[in-house]
């Protein structure tokens, strides 16, 4: 039995000379929320479309729930929301779900439960034309949930939502994962989904530049040092720790060493006659890692 829900090996897709997806090795483990992150145009939608059989890879392979992409047996266990959900505006939320249930042969059995799950039970009888964008997006997730899938593939489920809508979507997605489902979702905005993801993959210009837990991808933190005269402090730290470890981050200096070196660094600066007014530990933010990684890729 596999513990991976999705695995790709050197998966690629080109459009003419554009390498939209360039040899990526994804690994989405069963039961996790996997955030597939990247700027607009990075290749997220193209990847997700390949995983569900809507687009063919130019080269490389993918396995989804142990089967090739688009295999009906895997699709039967996969809930999909890619791009805008197709909704009937003049029907209620409940009827929209019932229609989908009918034409996908999963039936109406789960409609009420799904309305509950996506937080639309109270608005179930309202016409969808009167729904907010957030409600429509949640209804789209509801459609994907009707078949009670073990894997959900959601393309930008929080895109365009206002802050309250983002919070509701995040809570919904986190809840789905705690029910034991695997959730593979894409986003161009780390702040939207970063905190609910067990692991993330970062895509930049078609390449997977990082994959791992948030902590792994976030990378190292730094000691933030405020000392005067600053030029002398910079000089001393560069000599002792090497220029790579020292970054001028006005008004402070960032030194990439482990946090337990704080006291020793402080002492070294004091011993050199410098006036140290602050030494604190700064975690490297996920956002920084994201922008560093994508910037590196864009420079290639
Ligand atoms: N059918 C297509 N024909 C030609 N080029 C395409 C096609 N689909 C995607 N592309 C190109 O492939 C690249 C990746 O697009 P994709 O839509 O996968 O990115 P994305 O990360 O999902 O971005 P967005 O969030 O803007 O949808 C872009 O350069 C895009 O212009």
Automatic annotation (TrEMBL):
Entry keyword set: ATP-binding, Nucleotide-binding, Transport
MF terms in GO: ATP binding; ATP hydrolysis activity
Domain ABC transporter: 6-230
Pfam family, one: ABC_tran
Bilayer-spanning residue ranges: none
InterPro entries: AAA+_ATPase, ABC_transporter-like_ATP-bd, ABC_transporter-like_CS, P-loop_NTPase
Entry keyword annotation includes Transport: yes
Family: Belongs to the ABC transporter superfamily.
Protein name from the UniProt record: ABC transporter ATP-binding protein
Organism of derivation: Kribbella albertanoniae
